[in-house]
């Protein structure tokens, strides 16, 4: 055991060392940093601090206690300064915008005193994230001798932010500050400096400081770009930046005090984490509209994939609010997606346009809805999990003629998402059927329905995911509907044309007659010419945009019209040609009719069509 005299001498020596580095009393102490000096000087100072702390525990004399207490206060102020300076000196100036005035009494070490060991900057964070994205996490692929070490667990990639020798010095300071009861000061200094490094990382990754109100005031086109950037940045922040900050806290503070490492970590990243997740929260509670669905689903998928990593990185009780915030945002994003889908269904049903599209072509609503649900099918894995209830169909609104009635019993076993997509197509057809009644001509109304239902069928066939969700049984029903519309068109247009080519009413009896009434025959040819001219003039301006469908309908019409006309002409031509001005009555040859049919459904402007025929 050390004698009282020797103990006193040791204490006095320690006090002299502490006072020598009192920056409030010594110009030399203000101009120099202990941990920028040689190792022996550092160790001497730390030993002096230890000696004073021991003396405070062992001495019972009031004077000695007072002197030791005063010395320890000076020492803690100095160590706080050294701690801050060490942390600042290991933030690269070119990768961090750091304002020294924001931290009181901070000192930067000179460039020559910064340890030459390689450690990670925010540029490294971005580069390492690219490696994570390529699926190389944990296998060391692509590393070389200049790349710093890292530790990886699944998708989390921890990066060494500060070199080991600096961590050792920081830990030695932290041990003494915490042991002396200066935990709060140590945590605050650490948090303020490292938060600046995290903020610099945010800036590098494009994470902006925007309030929820700021975000909600932005135009959606601007937000779409920001959402893409946020998803990438959030992955880097959680899996690399935050995870590495947590690792650094553990390296410096593990087993020093009670959960000091967690306190320092939360002090450092809680503000930035809230800032990061505020963006997703603002999107989740923003006004709902159909165009937002897919970016909301992108956000949901990204956050859902990140949630296990968030739980791992923020696993402590003190970080619970961050875990809760992320989980609640995920729930709200799911609710937003379900709400948007429901509102989209209602918007399709209620779409109010009352102007018929020219030429009976595909309605813009049909294109929009089918493109929309094709995109929905791209997110089927996510939506199958989110959409858990059937749509509210017309059966809920008994007797309401403005809502289609549909029984899903025959679709038993289909997923709720499949039922929602089928329901959207049902209400789309219901709306289109109402729009078809805007046409005054039944023929173009049928052509309109044929065009639109055919487009629906082709969109479903063109997307394997959508076809799987809709199912072949419902697809067959749709195919039958557009074929039925095609048949209805042909009946409404061509029955009256073919009616002119019947024999009934042309034959007469009498010994001086040829058996055919030339007067009736001339009227029949004139009626055919008039009706066909009118149909040709009008329907050449109608449009079937699908080339194959257009050709198939022409062939179907031709197979009925051309043989009937050829037969009629063959039987009665001689009766007309034997009279005066036969060209007045036989206006079309069979070839003329075949050529005229090629004009049908081309969507010619009226003026252009008239020029074509006159030419």
Automatic annotation (TrEMBL):
UniProt keywords (A-Z) are:
Exocytosis, Protein transport, Transport
Q: Where is the composition biased (Low complexity)?
A: 101-119
Q: Which GO terms describe its cellular component?
A: exocyst
Q: Which residues cross the membrane?
A: none
User: What are its GO biological-process terms?
Assistant: exocytosis; protein transport
Chain segments carrying region Disordered = 99-119, 134-155
Q: Exocyst complex subunit Exo70 C-terminal domain location, by residue? A: 229-599
Say if the entry is tagged with keyword Cytoplasm. Answer: no
Tell me the Pfam families matching this sequence. Answer: Exo70_C, Exo70_N
Q: Where is the composition biased (Polar residues)?
A: 145-155
Q: What is this protein called?
A: Exocyst subunit Exo70 family protein
């Amino acid at each position: 055991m050390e004698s009282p005299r020797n103990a006193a001498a040791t204490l006095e020596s320690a006090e002299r060392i502490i006072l020598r580095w009192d920056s409030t009393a010594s110009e030399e102490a203000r101009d120099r940093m202990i941990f920028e000096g040689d190792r022996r000087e550092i160790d001497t100072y730390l030993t002096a601090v230890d000696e004073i702390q021991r003396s405070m525990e062992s001495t019972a004399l009031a004077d000695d206690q007072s002197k030791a207490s005063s010395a320890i206060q000076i020492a803690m102020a100095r160590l706080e300064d050294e701690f801050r300076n060490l942390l600042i000196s290991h933030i690269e100036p070119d990768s961090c915008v750091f304002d020294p005035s924001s931290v009181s009494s901070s000192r930067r070490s000179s460039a020559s005193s910064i340890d030459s060991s390689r450690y990670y900057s925010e540029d490294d964070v971005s580069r390492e994230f690219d490696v994570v994205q390529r699926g190389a996490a944990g296998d060391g692929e692509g590393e070389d001798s200049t790349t710093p070490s890292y530790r990886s667990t699944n998708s989390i990639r921890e990066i060494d932010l500060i070199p080991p020798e600096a961590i050792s010095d920081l830990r030695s300071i932290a041990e003494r500050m915490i042991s002396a009861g200066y935990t709060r000061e140590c945590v605050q200094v650490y948090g303020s400096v490292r938060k600046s490094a995290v903020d610099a990382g945010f800036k590098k990754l494009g994470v902006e400081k925007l309030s929820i109100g700021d975000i909600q005031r932005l135009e959606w086109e601007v937000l779409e770009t920001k959402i893409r950037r946020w998803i990438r940045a959030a992955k880097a922040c959680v899996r690399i930046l935050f995870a590495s900050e947590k690792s650094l806290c553990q390296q410096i503070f593990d087993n020093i005090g009670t959960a000091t490492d967690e306190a320092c970590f939360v002090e450092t990243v809680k503000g930035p984490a809230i800032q990061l997740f505020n963006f997703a929260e603002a999107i989740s509670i923003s006004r709902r509209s159909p165009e937002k669905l897919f970016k909301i689903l992108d956000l949901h998928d990204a956050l859902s994939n990140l949630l296990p990593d968030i739980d791992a990185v923020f696993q402590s009780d003190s970080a619970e609010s961050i875990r809760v915030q992320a989980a609640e945002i995920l729930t709200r994003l799911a609710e937003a997606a379900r709400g948007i889908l429901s509102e989209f269904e209602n918007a399709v049903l209620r779409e109010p346009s009352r102007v018929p599209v020219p030429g009976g072509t595909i309605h813009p609503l049909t294109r929009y809805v089918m493109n929309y649900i094709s995109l929905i099918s791209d997110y089927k894995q996510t939506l199958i999990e989110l959409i858990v209830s059937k749509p509210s169909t017309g059966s809920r609104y008994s007797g309401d003629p403005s809502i289609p009635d549909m029984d899903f019993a025959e679709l038993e076993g289909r997923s709720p998402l499949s039922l929602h997509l089928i329901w959207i197509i049902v209400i789309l057809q219901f709306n289109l059927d109402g729009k078809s009644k805007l046409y005054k001509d039944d023929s173009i109304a049928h052509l309109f329905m044929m065009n639109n239902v055919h487009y629906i069928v082709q969109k479903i066939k063109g997307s394997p995911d959508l076809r799987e969700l809709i199912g072949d049984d419902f697809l067959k029903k749709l195919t039958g509907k557009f074929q039925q519309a095609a048949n209805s068109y042909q009946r409404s247009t061509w029955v009256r044309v073919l009616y002119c080519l019947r024999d009934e009413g042309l034959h007469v009896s009498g010994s001086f007659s040829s058996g055919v009434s030339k007067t009736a025959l001339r009227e029949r040819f004139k009626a055919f010419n008039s009706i066909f001219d009118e149909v040709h003039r009008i329907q050449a301006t109608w449009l079937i945009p699908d080339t194959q469908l257009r050709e198939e309908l022409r062939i179907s019409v031709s197979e009925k019209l051309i043989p009937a006309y050829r037969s009629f002409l063959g039987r009665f031509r001689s009766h007309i040609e034997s009279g005066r001005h036969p060209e007045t009555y036989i206006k079309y040859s069979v070839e003329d009719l075949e050529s005229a049919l090629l004009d049908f459904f081309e969507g010619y402007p009226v003026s252009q069509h008239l020029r074509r025929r006159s030419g």
